[in-house]
């Protein structure tokens, strides 16, 4: 950041001193400034052939870190990586001045991602051809929730078994999560079943738009939703679910007796080389704990050692 207005030299370059480190800096437009000595990082970026994400401090337009993404093959993988970087660096904190940028969206970047290749992004549902994890069609057409259009528990069981085999084969981490709306009885009594259905649909839409993960979303028993997330970390998923929880809680049209809507979430990491049913139980226990503690919270389950 310049300590004083830059002085333009005969070559059309503005020169000043940095207000923070007192080192000489230069600019071509008095907007972006660079150290007068050493490399012009912007020029280095312009000459690069590989796409990357970069973390920037918006207070002084300073690049904090770079993250190459040429090893990622699909946009969902890039989105997942972006969410992980944001979570690790507190980008979504209201007081944070950090922002994450995509070099491909800058004027000097036109490098596309590699085309999606078939492989571990697919799984086989026993009753049909391979389907992508996102938006899996029900194995049985009757196994479909009429309100949300989501597949039911039967389809989840088929997906769960196939994905656990896939995870063991390829070493991909999985996360299982249960989500249950809070205080639905009060809402239905106070505002009617139609209003309750609108809240269920809202929650389904929010969960279906969970950013950055390859997911399968189904209706579980009762009012519950169940999520299976591929190549995910439980801590990152917990933060994303907590953001959804806050979004739902802000919908005051569903408030009853001055208390807003909420969701209780329980989740667990599925060990690649362990019993996936232990994670299923851990997530279920975490959900019951979240509800027992008053609901409207996200609880991470603890894996129990087999007897």
UniProtKB/TrEMBL annotation:
It comes from the Bacteria. One of its GO terms (biological process) is negative regulation of bacterial-type flagellum-dependent cell motility. Residues 103-112 have a biased composition (Basic residues). It is an enzyme of class 2 (transferase). It comes from Novosphingobium aerophilum. Its EC number is 2.7.7.65. GO terms for cellular component: plasma membrane. SMART domains: GGDEF. GO terms for molecular function: diguanylate cyclase activity. This is diguanylate cyclase. Pfam families: GGDEF. Residues 89-112, 119-138 are annotated as: Disordered. Residues 172-303 form the GGDEF domain.
